[in-house]
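W.,

You were right to be curious about this one. When I first looked at the sequence I had no strong expectations either way, so I just let the prediction run and decided to look at it fresh. Below is the sequence, 215 residues in total, followed by the output.
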Amino acid sequence: MASLDPAVASVLDTHRPNDHSDEDELLDILDDDPALDTFREQRLQQLHEEFNKAKYLRNQEHGSYTEINDEKALMDIVSTGAELCVVHFFKSDFHRCGIMNQHLEALAPLHFETRFLRINVENAPFLVTKLKVQVLPCVIAFKKGVSVDRIIGFEGLGYTEDTFSTHDLERRLLQSGSLVRPKMNASHEAASLQRYHTGSGGRGQATKDDDDDWD
């Protein structure tokens, strides 16, 4: 597949297509770009194709962070339903799982090409055993049904919740190819922090057991 033109990517990432989007408006925005003269038709065609792709994926529940309660349904999505998936194995009473939820919820609407899912470990005994999920939070990235990365606790992201940002998580997932391109900016990060503070009443201290063996 041809790489996405930077100008097209910028329009798509800034004005994320959804059910209420007007393709003509996006085309007008791209058409106003003074750098468009070169390869103009190719760019307009690419925007048209990406616009339709984005709307199709959003209709398939891409662009949201979805909890799956049945592990068979999760396996179906990962194996045949979506090319790129990020799955969070969590437990609702684990503070650090809540922190991970906040970051994944911020990334999901930006990276509509990837399905963002979560499942309570108590609803996934077979997968927990098969994938050897022992420490929470556990985030596993899949590409065409094959695991390409595993984040255990906050490993490789930050030493504490105060140094772990959504941008850190995005960068890690980009390395594995489970995200298509970087999309986080300062305003996205600020919004993510605001959601976290609002949802948790401020950054509490994680307990020692938060990322220990859950069982």
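Here's what jumped out at me. The radius of gyration is 18 Å. And, maybe more interesting for your project: Residues 201-209 have pLDDT under 50 and may be disordered.

Coffee later to discuss?

I.
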